[in-house]
Amino acid sequence: MNATTITSTHSGTTRGPVDHEVRNQIVIAATQHFRLYGYEKTTVSDLAKAIGFSKAYIYKFFESKQAIGELICANCLHEIETDVRSAVDGGGYPSEKFRRMFKTIVESSLRLFFEDRKLYDIAASAATENWESVRTYEARIKMLLQDILIQGRETGEFERKTPLDETAASIYLVFRPYLNPLILQHSLDSTADAPAQLSSLILRSLSP
């Protein structure tokens, strides 16, 4: 993630004016610090020194270090979601959209979670502690998956006997290891082939 082009996508634990440039200064400084020293080793005092603000002033905008991490994490996850939606919106049959969705989830997750090992610390903390930004992201991915399933049922490409929510939940269990950085790190040797192989398996099960 480019720290100079941060867009606020999560504000559940932020304070002060949402569009205040100071907020972006704090997030940019935090991103740089996390890249250098890691999320766990960086304190709010460290960020205050780096920006030249008092710690109390930072707390006017964020209630905790986690709140800053939440915003950075939300932006990272928003990038993945944007990539996935672009892939799905490319047209084609629902089965083709499904394949592109799975492939893009894996590729984008690998790029954003592992291109910078220090920022991976944020993703790992977010997954471990089930941050709100993670829950929101997962809910949106589930909705996108469900939309594809509905399209497939409407066109007759997918079976319609199994309840939609049951089908979506089951497929999401296959997706989840590739959405969670803690699990994904143990599957790096299979990510090149997994999307195509698992997509084919799932699509065969969806045939009417």
UniProtKB/TrEMBL annotation:
Tagged with keyword Cell inner membrane: no
Gene3D superfamilies reported for this sequence: Tetracycline Repressor, domain 2 (1.10.357.10)
Keywords: DNA-binding, Transcription, Transcription regulation
Feature: DNA-binding region: 43-62
InterPro entries on file: Homeodomain-like_sf, HTH-type_TetR-like_transc_reg, HTH_TetR, Tet_transcr_reg_TetR-rel_C_sf, TetR_C_27
HTH tetR-type domain boundaries: 20-80
Name of the molecule in the record: TetR/AcrR family transcriptional regulator
Organism of origin: Undibacterium rivi
